[in-house]
Amino acid sequence: EAKDRGKGGHQHFRTGMEARGSDRRRLIDALTTAIDDDQLILHYQPVVSLPDGRTTGFEALVRWRHPADGLIGPGAFIAAAEESGLIVPLGRWVLNRAARQAADWGEQAGSISVNVSGRQLQVAGFADEVAKALRTSGLPARRLILEITETTVVGGGATRTNLDGIRAQGVRLSLDDFGTGSSTLTTVAGLSVDQIKLDRSFVDSDVIARAVLLLAQGMNAEAVAEGVETPAQADRLHELGYRRAQGFLFGRPAPSDEYGLTRARVGGP
Ligand code: C2E
Ligand code: MG
Ligand code: MG
Ligand code: MG
C-alpha cells in the first residue's frame, strides 16, 4: 500500500508481496542493521472516547528511519520481518520502547497499545518477556494492551499458553483488523479478548459495524472503530453504540514529543 510508506521521497525498497529474491535479501540485511543501529522509531496515534474525542490511550506504530531513504512505514517491511523471523527481535524492541514511553508519560496518557505478530506469540516464553518489559519500564499491566489478529490466534506453538499467560498478568488483548481475517465465528467467540477493533475498511458499513459491536458485547469486550476520518463517520459510529475510536480525524500517528506529555526521566534518557 503506497499510502503506508514513509514520506522519505524515493522508495528504495519494494513492499512485501513484490520484493523477491535478492531484493528481499537486501531488505532483510538492512532491517537487521536497523534494529541494531537504532534506526527504528515509534509513532503514537491517539485512541479516543466518543462522542467527546478525549484521548484515552495511544497505539504505538513502528517506522524505520532509513539513513538514505528517509522514513519508511511498516507496510514496507513488516511482512519481510515476519517471514524472516526478524519480527521477533523487532517486536521485542517495540514492546520495550513503547512500555518505557508510556511509563515516562505517566498515568494521564492512559493505555498503550502494541501490535504483536503471530511469530512472536509462537515463541515459548513470550508472556515472560511481556512481564519483564513491564517490570523494567515500571508500566502497570493494566495500562498495556497487546493487539493480535485473527490469524495470530490460530498460530500454534506456544500461542495459547502465551495468550493465557499475558492475560493472567492483567494485560489486555485486542483483536486488531477485525473482519479482514479468515477465522470462523466459532474461533472468535471462543477467544478471551478485551477489545475488538473494527477494521477501517468497515467503518462505512452500518451492517458490519453493528454486527461487530454486538459480537464484542457478547464477548464482554470493548469495540473500537479504526480509521475514522470524518465527523460524519464519528457521529454515525457513536449512534450505533461505539464508545471508542481511532483515526486521522482525532490524530495521526506522530512522534512522542508531539503530544506534550513528555516528562523528564530521572537520570536522563
Ligand atoms: P494497524 O495496527 O491496524 O494500525 C493502524 C494503521 O492504520 C496505521 O498504519 C495507521 O497509521 C493507519 N491509520 C490510522 N488511522 C487512520 C485513518 O483514519 N485513515 C487511514 N487511511 N489510515 C489510518 P501504519 O502505521 O502504516 O501501520 C500499518 C500496519 O503495520 C499496522 O496496522 C500493523 O498491522 C502493522 N504494524 C505497525 N507497527 C507494528 C509493530 O510494531 N509490530 C507489528 N507486528 N506490526 C506493526
Ligand atoms: Mg494495531
Ligand atoms: Mg488495526
Ligand atoms: Mg488495520
TrEMBL record:
Q: Which residues form the EAL domain?
A: 24-267
Q: What superkingdom does the record give?
A: Bacteria
Name of the protein described by the UniProt record: EAL domain-containing protein
Q: What organism does this protein naturally occur in?
A: Paractinoplanes bogorensis
Q: Which residues of the full protein are shown?
A: 601 to 869 of 869
